[in-house]
Amino acid sequence: MPPAEDIQRHLLGAWRMMTGKRDAVRMLDLSVDGFWNSFFAILIALPVLLVGWVPLANELAVPEARFVGRVLLVLRLAVVDIGSWVLPIAALAAISGYVGIRDRFVAYVVATNWGSALFAWFMLPASLLRLVAPGLGEAATALSLGIFLASMVLLWRLTDAAIDKGPGVATGVFAGMFMASVLTLFALQDLLGIGAPMPS
Fold first, then answer.
1. CA distance to 8, 34, 37, 42, per residue, from 109 (Å)
2. How many separate helices (H) and strands (E) can be counted in the chain?
């Protein structure tokens, strides 16, 4: 795992890119090691992701489901979320040369990995609300939607700064990766049987 000071610098760099400081990409480690180390952002996001998986697992499992079954459901939700994070990146790696961003692929991946960790933590208030007050599901959903929409704006800005090829190319990459993530999410949910209440 990267040193704590490096993690802090990368998260700050991603945040600054989201807020319009395009030169903050220089704060990121764009070496080969920096590329692979950026996937440790998944571990940074893991605690808050877990806070979201637990109440969702409780919603999806039937009331009589045992503890072990609920834990297994949480693990399936983890596979879905992490898969929808990583697999679209692998797909982009395969086509980056064809869409003209091979020279910016590493910068994009490093920036969006650390940015995605921030986005996960942005969702913490909504996840905690759903966890501690299940009866306020509508309020938690509305809060989640607001945070999601704001995150999409910030993610586009992060993409634009990382790709550095103009708003048109950034929008294409942003839209393509968003759709790839959604399709991967649905495919993994279907593959793992997630979607309706289950007697795990």
1. 17, 10, 11, 13
2. 8, 0
Token pair of 141 as six digits = 């959903």
Question: Residues 68, 182, 178, 150: is their CA dihedral positive or negative?
Answer: negative
Own/partner pairs, 180-183, CB within 8 angstroms, 24+ separation: 180/87, 180/88, 180/91, 180/92, 181/84, 181/85, 181/88, 182/84
Q: State how far Cα 64 lies from the chain centre.
A: 32
pTM recorded for the entire structure: 0.89
CA-closest candidate to residue 52, choices 148, 117, 151, 120:
120
The region of weakest confidence among 27-36, 38-47, 67-76, 191-200 is 191-200
Looking at the DSSP bridge assignments, the partners of residue 198 are 61
> Rounded to the nearest 5°, which phi and psi values hold at 198?
-130, 140
Residue position matching structure tokens 């991967």 = 184
pLDDT tens figures, 6-57: 999 999 999 999 999 999 999 999 999 999 999 999 999 999 999 888 878 7
Cβ proximity of 169 and 101 under 8 Å:
yes
Spatial CB neighbours of 88, under 8 Å, sequence gap ≥ 6: 177, 180, 181, 184
pLDDT-based confidence at residue 158 (cuts at 50, 70, 90): very high
